[in-house]
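User: I'm putting together notes for a lab meeting next week and I want to include a structural view of one of the chains we've been expressing. I don't have a solved structure, so I'd like a prediction I can at least talk through. The sequence is below, exactly as it appears in our construct file.
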Amino acid sequence: QVQLVESGGGLVQAGGSLRLSCAASGRILSSSIIGWFRQATGKEREFVAGIRWGYGTTNYADSVKGRFTISRDKAENTAYLEMNSLKPEDAGLYYCARGTSYYQGPSGWPDWGQGTQVTVSS
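Assistant: Thanks for the context. Below is the predicted structure for the 122-residue chain, given as structure tokens.
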């Protein structure tokens, strides 16, 4: 089991930027995916971005392509989500999670952090 702790959320104006961090304790296998999900009030949790831990290959939701960048520092056991050109609709509770397949919904990802709140003012 991997424990995940998110940080970096906050209040930002539309058009601004934030950088989220996901610090992991425990060994992350190369085949694992570290993903970012978000959940707005009254909505379902949705996938935002993911990175394959070993190869570093990435995957993004269409809604964030070109604005968000996911990366990881294997030495620090930490993943990041750089969010630029933020929109009010990007607001929500952002979670990082560990999984093994992009084809599984959130319930198929075994390990989750507690989340960090992102608020975007218009």
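A couple of points you could mention at the meeting. The radius of gyration is 13 Å. The mean pLDDT is 96.

User: Perfect, that's what I needed.
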